[in-house]
Design goal:
Keywords: ATP-binding, Nucleotide-binding. The protein is an alpha/beta fold and 236 residues long. 47% of the residues lie in helices and 12% in strands. A six-stranded mixed β-sheet has the order 1-3-4-5-2-6, sandwiched between helices. Helix 7 links the parallel strand 4 and strand 5. The chain starts with a helix and ends with a helix.
């Protein structure tokens, strides 16, 4: 199976200014970007950049958009794969599939974004043969991560980091947790979204204890409902 069948070459351009980070994540990501900016100076002293990142936590809180923003900022191609689709029902083929993708991204010094990374540790009723194949896959992933070149970037995302093999987790130098935003954080996000619409659409019922993605969907649905209502009233 070719790389084109396993990956998505993602050209989406997202700026960091468009993403709302926790102070801790913003500090860590700023440091990461500075390391890549000065990678040659660091290499003169035998220092490597932190190029293996795990993004974990609640769904819809910006893990995928963060990966895209990092790729844009450091000027690298992004190859995206979803482990839930690349892991074959025939586990014996999976190590080969994953290795093919890693080698392609490494050769191009690209960003390799792996979504649903927890699929490696998902609880399934493996028979004895499949359990052995899954362990071989885990060992293969460990080797691929260990030898991933320092001038390329590996980003993995998961909603369930607790099920991932601990030996794999240790390979990631940077682990960033994405949590549900605070009320203040959501208010800031709502205000930024509303700036694109006339004041007449700014009055709506805000919801909290949700992700940024859920908040955006809620706001857009409310505004669409109001726009349609206004248009229908014009025709009466």
């Amino acid at each position: 199976m070719g790389v084109s069948n396993l990956t998505i070459y993602d050209e989406a351009k997202i700026d960091f200014e468009d993403i709302h980070f926790s102070p801790e994540n913003k500090t860590a990501l700023t440091r990461l970007l500075k390391e890549f900016k000065h990678i040659e100076a660091l290499s003169k002293y035998g220092l490597t950049v932190d190029n293996k990142i795990l993004l974990y936590g609640h769904t819809g809180c910006g893990k995928t958009t963060t990966a895209k923003a990092i790729a844009k900022h450091i000027g690298k191609k992004t190859y995206s794969i979803d482990l839930s689709t690349i892991i074959s029902s025939r586990l014996g083929e999976t190590s080969k599939n994953v290795a093919t993708v890693f080698k392609k991204a490494a050769h191009e010094k690209a960003v390799l974004f792996i979504d649903e990374f927890d699929y490696l540790g998902a609880s399934r009723n493996y028979n004895k043969k499949d359990s052995a194949e899954m362990q071989r896959l885990v060992n293969s992933i460990i080797q691929l991560i260990d030898f991933y070149p320092s001038d390329a970037l590996l980003i993995a995302a998961t909603n369930f980091s607790e099920v991932i093999d601990s030996a794999i987790l240790r390979r990631f130098q940077l682990k960033l947790k994405f949590e549900l935003p605070s009320k203040e954080g959501l208010d800031t996000y709502y205000d930024s979204l509303l700036s694109a619409f006339p004041n007449q659409y700014h009055q709506f019922s805000r919801i909290y204890d949700v992700s940024y993605a859920e908040a955006k969907d809620h706001l857009h649905q409310a505004i669409k409902t109001q726009i349609i209502k206004d248009e229908e009233e014009k025709r009466q």
